[in-house]
Amino acid sequence: xxxxxxxxxxxxxxxxxxxxxxxxxxxxxxxxxxxxxxxxxxxxxxxxxxxxxxxxxxxxxxxxxxxxxxxxxxxxxxxxxxxxxxxxxxxxxxxxxxxxxxxxxxx
Amino acid sequence: xxxxxxxxxxxxxxxxxxxxxxxxxxxxxxxxxxxxxxxxxxxxxxxxxxxxxxxxxxxxxxxxxxxxxxxxxxxxxxxxxxxxxxxxxxxxxxxxxxxxxxxxxxxxxxxxxxxxxxxxx
Lengths: 107, 121
Hints:
heterodimer; A: mainly beta; seven-stranded mixed beta sheet; four-stranded antiparallel beta sheet; 11 strands; globular; B: mainly beta
């Protein structure tokens, strides 16, 4: 099984800050990497697929990059609506696995 | 917009069974692969099971294999998860999710709000 390790597990940031979240896989994913945003009590929201392609309707302040085993999600200027937990997910092979999540909190 | 509504959660005793349902609307359900994903209290997301559009391909996480059964009824636009031999470790919010596909594999583009399953005596 492919293990997904996210870092940090949590961070505190202010509105307007640039935020970067890292996801490392135990083997190469060939960019089969997605990102999701999850708020308590809500349905998870799909943000990015193929490591770097934004889903339609996702604000351009979100971006993804990476290749091989290392990937990043960047929020260029954090907005109040962005405080949430973010998960990476590999779909290179079954079982599909998620990272442990990164909670983005208000500083 | 796409709508997915889970139901069937509740309190069940250890060793018991429960059947979750996911009602799909506003898209052609029979064209899409579907998944179940769960989140235990204070934990992250865990993929549970996948089913292809025609039920030809089915996959399970090791943690539920042999105990859970995924199925679908395309005529009723519904996805199901039969859960047997439940244990405390199965306590979680269960989400159904629709699968989209790109040149870089699947992604879960729409999710339901979830249904809570609590396993406790």
